[in-house]
Design a protein that fits this description.
The chain is of the alpha+beta class and about 220 residues long. The chain contains three helices and 14 strands.
Amino acid sequence: MNFAREGLLFIAIAAVIAAGAFGFAISRRSWGLWLFAFVLLLVALWVAYFFRDPERTGARGQSLVVSPADGKLIMITEVDEPGFIHGRAIRLSIFMNVFNVHVNRYPVDGVVKYIHYNKGKFFNAAAEKSSLENEQMSVGIETPHYRILVRQIAGLIARRIVTYSKLAETVKQGDRMGIIRFGSRVDVFIPTGSRVQAKLGDATTAGVTVLADLPK
């Protein structure tokens, strides 16, 4: 099992605390301390599980938009996107809970032409206003024919967005683009006229689930 590099310190700290608790329980020979140590072990295992980073393969192609995140598709709506697309776009919003893989991936091949960080609030990431008002990082990718925007959005619990993207960098569909810690949301903005394949309520898998076909 691979783990996201951003989680290695958390995994190590949780493991050391659990090991220390077991050592203390052994020295005191207390069933109460054994139980407490077992709980800490479960927490350490959950931390490792949260930061898992499995390899992903799936359909690839210039006409496809694959999911940038594991989670649940909670919104499909047409909106204005003035920052990078400069016009109308279809926004697909994916909500990630604390049990989803939180490593995000590029939905298309292209060149990073836009990176914008907005220090905002921490509303519930499932709410409509979170796309505008929450702390977020937007990454704009230019393909040979279209512009695609991916927006990582912090939530009530998630307070740390990590983005690997660099301006002028060529990126590949399905490659890792970053991570959001402890549950949040990712929006992807695609051109109007795209044929959306996914449906509201669908479970998505980053780098695997095909969300839409781009216009011909």
